[in-house]
Structures are given as C-alpha cells and as structure tokens.
Amino acid sequence: MYPIVCAWSMRLSKGEYVVWPDGCRDLIVVVSRGRISRMLCTGLDAAVRRVVRTEETLFFGVRLAPGSAFPWEKAPDTMRADLPLSRYLSSYGGDWSMETDGETALRRLVELTETLVSPVEEWVSDCLMEIGSGAPCRIASLSERTARRRLVQATGAPPKFWSALARARRAGLELVRSEAPQAQIAADCGFSDQAHMSREIRRWFGCAPGGLREHRERALDRLAAPDAFNVRYSSTMNFANSGAGAIG
Predict the structure, then answer these.
(1) Euclidean distance between CA atoms 101 and 98, whole angstroms
(2) Contact 240/226 with Cβ under 8 angstroms?
(3) Which residues pair with 63 in a beta bridge?
(4) Residue 208's domain is classified under what CATH number?
(5) Same-domain check for residues 16 and 79
(6) Cα–Cα distance for residue pair 174/182, rounded to 1 Å
(7) How far is CA 53 from CA 38, 58, 165, 219, 221, in A?
(8) How many CB atoms lie within 10 A of CB 53?
(9) In the chain, where does DSSP find H-type helix?
(10) Single pTM value for the model
(11) How far apart are CA 13 and CA 25, in angstroms?
C-alpha cells in the first residue's frame, strides 16, 4: 500500500513550537536563509516534541505511513530516533532555498520518497485502523505474541504504544468537539478514571484536558489532521493545509 499519508509545508519564525504525536514519521527538508539545507527523518514520537528555532525556517515534509521503511532500516529501534539522511543520500532533489516554490518542492520530495521508501503491507494499516477505533490489534491466523512481534518489526512500536496514542487522540477529539463531562469522556474512551485520562493527555499533548478545550480550534486542527489511524492509504496524494497538525 502507498507509503505516504500526506505532504505538508510550514514557515516558522523565531520561537518555540510544539509537535503532537500522530503515529507517523516525517521525511523533512529544513531550510534556513544563508545555510545549507538538511534532510532528516523524524523518529516515532512517544511524547510531545519541542522545536526551537533561532531564525526564520522553512520546512517541507512528507508524512510516512506506519510500516513504511527505508532500505537501510534493519531493526525497529532505528524508527524511534531522528535520523539525518546526509550519510545515505548524496543528493536529494537539487537546491532548496527560502524562495523555493512550495508545490514544486513537495512534489520533488514525494518523488524521492516513492523511490526510497518501501510500500506498506496491508495488514499493518488494517491493524492500526482497528486500534484507532478502540479494538485490539488482530492479525488473522497469528497468535497475540506473534502479532505483537510483527507489529514492532513493521512500525517500531508495540500494540500498547499504538493503543495508548489512539485512545489519547480519541479523547482529545471528544474534548474539543463536545461539552461532555471529562469523567464521561474518560469512561467512554477506556481510561480507568478521569485522572488517568488527564495524565495521558498531558503525556501526549503537553497540556491538561482543559487546555485542549481552551484552545479548541488549534487542537481540532491538529487532532483531525491525517494520522496513523484515520487514513486509508492509497496512491492519491493528499496535501495537508500548511502542515496542520505537524508543527504548531
């Protein structure tokens, strides 16, 4: 199955920004004025990521579907850390600058990704879609232990990671889309109690549940953006609005 969830771009001024985990890694070109551009693949985030910029910076990114892998990735732990790609790629699509046309840049990056990254096995997306809906991870004809091992090998993380992330994102969406009491949302989403939900929301999003409701529009943009659970991968290219949900 197609290895790309969406493509995005973002221009950030000097400051500190927060990235919320969405279950996807990103292949990113980072461009700053007067500097040589660099390319990296982000690791699989298990908590909020803080991005500090000391100058205006332009990002072009491709969000990778869980289960996609580069030729040099031989072990699951390589998917958990950021990886500069200069050691593997002598060239990645020509010159990049602050004046680079966004659509052209993204199409070049998509073409590079399609060349480098292996397709996703269908069972991976099927399994994660089940987890995203609140169901346990199942792989036909395989034992629970074998299914767990295969999911770790394919995505870099076990079912427990995916279930916790999916549950937090479901709860976050309920918090910003409704006025239901937090205790009710916690119960509906499978948390042991409201305090448990609050801890998990803080872990994944860096704020209390009330903070999500206080900034509903921004939170909804991030939580409704393409992620590991709500996209059926296909060869149709999706472009995220200015990287909504990737950096904010």
Answers:
(1) 9
(2) yes
(3) 6, 26
(4) 1.10.10.60
(5) yes
(6) 9
(7) 14, 10, 27, 22, 22
(8) 16
(9) 102-116, 122-132, 144-155, 159-177, 182-188, 194-205, 209-214, 216-223
(10) 0.87
(11) 23
Total count of domains within the chain = 2
- The dihedrals phi and psi of 18, each to the nearest 5 degrees, come to -120, 135
Do 212 and 239 fall within a single domain?
no
- Residue 77 pLDDT more than 50? yes
The pair of three-digit structure tokens given for residue 180, joined into one six-digit string: 């239901």
Instruction: Give 126-172 pLDDT, tens digit per residue.
Output: 889 888 888 877 776 677 788 888 899 999 999 999 999 999 999 99
The residue whose two tokens read 């394919």 is 154
CB 120 within 8 A of CB 233: yes
Which residue segment(s) compose the domain that 20 sits in? Answer: 4-121+232-243
- Residue 71: both structure tokens together: 């030729």
With beta carbons less than 8 A apart as the criterion, state whether 111 and 122 touch.
no
Rama region for 73: left / alpha / beta (φ>0; ψ in -120 to 50; rest) = beta
**Of 243, 241, 231, 245, which is closest to residue 5 (Cα–Cα)?**
231
Same domain, 92 and 131: no
Q: Which of helix, strand or coil describes residue 179?
A: coil
Q: Rounded distance, CA 73 to CA 76, Å?
A: 8
In a domain, 248, yes or no: no
Q: What is the mean pLDDT of residues 122-128?
A: 88
Residues 226-234: what's their mean pLDDT? 70
Per-residue pLDDT tens digits for 159-211:
999 999 999 999 999 999 999 999 999 999 999 999 999 999 999 999 999 99
